[in-house]
TrEMBL record:
<feature type="domain" description="Response regulatory">
    <location>
        <begin position="2"/>
        <end position="117"/>
    </location>
</feature>
<dbReference type="InterPro" id="IPR016032">
    <property type="entry name" value="Sig_transdc_resp-reg_C-effctor"/>
</dbReference>
<dbReference type="InterPro" id="IPR000792">
    <property type="entry name" value="Tscrpt_reg_LuxR_C"/>
</dbReference>
<dbReference type="InterPro" id="IPR036388">
    <property type="entry name" value="WH-like_DNA-bd_sf"/>
</dbReference>
<protein>
    <submittedName>
        <fullName>Response regulator transcription factor</fullName>
    </submittedName>
</protein>
<feature type="domain" description="HTH luxR-type">
    <location>
        <begin position="131"/>
        <end position="196"/>
    </location>
</feature>
<dbReference type="InterPro" id="IPR011006">
    <property type="entry name" value="CheY-like_superfamily"/>
</dbReference>
<dbReference type="Pfam" id="PF00072">
    <property type="entry name" value="Response_reg"/>
</dbReference>
<keyword id="KW-0238">DNA-binding</keyword>
<dbReference type="InterPro" id="IPR039420">
    <property type="entry name" value="WalR-like"/>
</dbReference>
<feature type="modified residue" description="4-aspartylphosphate">
    <location>
        <position position="52"/>
    </location>
</feature>
<dbReference type="InterPro" id="IPR001789">
    <property type="entry name" value="Sig_transdc_resp-reg_receiver"/>
</dbReference>
<keyword id="KW-0597">Phosphoprotein</keyword>
<dbReference type="Pfam" id="PF00196">
    <property type="entry name" value="GerE"/>
</dbReference>
Length: 198
C-alpha cells in the first residue's frame, strides 16, 4: 500500500511513518506541510492520504477536497488533535473516509486504515455526534480571508494574496464578522477557529 503522510510536526510525522512501516506492508511518503502534500499528490500514485488538518499552506480538509475533485479513488483519513464539530462536518463534506484523534492508540489507526481500504468509513462515534453541532456559516472566500486576517495580514495583503480587490477583501471580512456576530476581524477569526471553521 502506498501512503502519503502529511503532517507538519516533524517528530509526530517521523514516529507515525516508522510505526506504519513497522506494522504493515506500506510504503510511506512524507510531506512536511499542505503545499508539499499537494505537490506529491499531483506527482505520485497513492492509495491513502493520511493527513493532519492544521498545517502551513493547504489544510488537510483542502487536500481532501482536492482529492475528491481530482482523485476520487484515493482514500483519505484525517488524524488531528482537534475534534471540533466544524472540522468534522467539513471533512465529511470533503469526502474524508476516516477521522481519528491523534491520541488514539496505533492499533486503532491501523484498524481504521484496514477498514477504510476495505471501503468503509471510520469516524469515532463521539466525533460523529459532534458533527451534528453548529453549521458553518462561512463561504470558502470568507474563510480564506479570515485565515489570513488571523495571521495578522492587512486588508491590502489579504487582497494581494487572494488576487482580489481590496474592497472585495474588506467585504469578505465584513460578511464573516457579521455572520459570526463578532466585534472585529480578530474576534471573528477566534470564534471561527474555536468552532473548527477555519
Amino acid at each position: 500500500m502506498n501512503i502519503l503522510l502529511a503532517e507538519d510536526q516533524n517528530m509526530v510525522r517521523s514516529a507515525l511513518a516508522a510505526l506504519l512501516k513497522l506494522e504493515g506492508d506500506a510504503k510511506v511518503t512524507e510531506a512536511c506541510d499542505g503545499d508539499a502534500a499537494l505537490k506529491q499528490l499531483k506527482q505520485g500514485q497513492f492509495d491513502l492520504l493520511l493527513t493532519d488538518i492544521e498545517m502551513p499552506g493547504y489544510t488537510g480538509i483542502e487536500l481532501a477536497e482536492w482529492v475528491r475533485d481530482n482523485r476520487p479513488e484515493l482514500k483519505v483519513i484525517i488524524i488531528t488533535t482537534f475534534g471540533r464539530a466544524g472540522y468534522i462536518r467539513r471533512a465529511l463534506e470533503a469526502g474524508v473516509t476516516g477521522f481519528l484523534l491523534k491520541d488514539a492508540p496505533i492499533e486503532e489507526l491501523l484498524d481504521a486504515i484496514n477498514r477504510v481500504m476495505a471501503g468503509r468509513k471510520v469516524i469515532d462515534p463521539e466525533l460523529a455526534m459532534m458533527a451534528l453541532g453548529d453549521k458553518d456559516p462561512l463561504s470558502d472566500k470568507e474563510r480564506r480571508a479570515l485565515r489570513l486576517a488571523q495571521e495578522g495580514k492587512s486588508t491590502a495583503e489579504i487582497a494581494a494574496q487572494l488576487f482580489i480587490a481590496e474592497g472585495t477583501a474588506r467585504n469578505y471580512l465584513s460578511e464573516a464578522i457579521s455572520k459570526l456576530g463578532a466585534a472585529n476581524r480578530v474576534d471573528a477569526a477566534r470564534i471561527a477557529a474555536q468552532k473548527g471553521w477555519l
